[in-house]
Amino acid sequence: MSEPREIRDPVFGFIRIDGIEGDIVSSPIFQRLRRIRQLAFAHLVYPGALHTRFEHSLGVCHIASLIANSLGVLNDEIKLIRLAALLHDIGHGPFSHVSEEALEIYTDKEKLPSDLNKTEKIHEHITADIIGNDPYIRRHIASVERDKIIKILGEGYGDPLLRSIVSGPIDADKQDYLLRDSYFCGVKYGVFDRRQLHREMRAVDDPPEGKHLMISKDGIHALEQFVLAKYYITNQVYRHRVRLITDQMLIRAICLGIDIDQIEELYNLYRYDGSPEFIKDYVLWDDAKFLMTFLDRNFEGKYCHEFLVRLNERRLLKRIFDRPIKDLPEICRDDLLNISRPENKEQRTRLERYLWQPICKTIKGKNLGKITCNPEDDSHFLIIYSYTIKSVRAQSRNDEAAILVDRGPKGISTFEEESALFNSINERLSEAFVELYAPVSYDTPVDRDKIKTTLDKIILENIVSFFEGGER
Predict the structure, then answer these.
(1) How many domains does the chain have?
(2) CATH number assigned to the domain comprising residue 41
(3) In angstroms, rounded to a whole number, what is the distance separating the alpha carbons of residues 285 and 95?
(4) What does the pLDDT look like over 219-273, one tens digit per residue?
């Protein structure tokens, strides 16, 4: 067993890990996280955002331990919580959440066990597979403890309190990524008073389920700050225009690489089937291997290669259209709201193909700029994407579970009931948007605005025409 050690961290100063945790951190499966960036290609807009799942996992372990200690969790349970926090992202693939979407599309769900929890994300199942079977983890963590860790990260183990510390509305994961992403992106949107929030957390017995993680009545303002921090960083950083474009370009590179280019390595990487063979191959991949493999000259002429070259050289698609979905004609609202879901991939492709020719004709006919794909009539380079910005009130929930407030002798209520600020917010203020990204170039911001202004009416008319023609 390794000796306990302290790891210097730019966010928390020093993070202390014990011998078993040190053995896990030193293992190849955990060191792989050094090569998976937390925010994929966000560094193309926030140059400092080069941090990885490695330091994030250490940070979550640190915060989970602080929360557990403040709540009086027993030492044996703290050990499990720390290990669960340390391993919670061990199943991430290249570029973190981008791989999640590809896994959701290409996983062979027919080959997964019928009793598998279908509500969990695929990368969470992969995490459980790795924790249960990785030889290095098996060497240092006993089978019984591995099963408990998997349960803490899944359906729960022991009191609901334990799972809430690692995965819940105010869990250690969210607390670390808010502070860490803010630090490395160079913004203040995700900053909150962590110490005050921890001081006001409570472990409250709520029979028959057991202890739950709650916030005290006096902690309402600290919790408001936390929820607002999550809201602001989501809308200002995670929903930044360039971040959305780079993520969609990566996903399109993967999808075209599998569907059109028929690249076997890509297919095998994202076709999760629950088998040991899949996991054995999957854990060999990280951001660097992904780029080195598919940027290789052997893949020149492939869609996947072209999109990755564009990302590598920061020749990004441009946003040529964006509208709130509520402002669009009723005939297309519902379809556009769901157009980016995996099950609507064929409809999305048809719509992109339908829109591409009018867009090309307008850009070339009015001399608005240059189309930067070859051939110019290739609609695969046009991406339509929709997303929803939830109201700050809706974002205060995780899986629709309200954050509970301990009111002492007065019983238990919810954060929304106790917070005058959040109680005054209309949850229906959530807003959905649809955007189009295209391979165009222009010289000045004036040219950019001219392109968007000219195309806006043409794109909208063709979207309506597409759905009026029964293209559902």
Answers:
(1) 2
(2) 1.10.3210.10
(3) 10
(4) 999 999 998 999 899 989 999 999 999 999 999 999 999 999 999 999 999 999 9
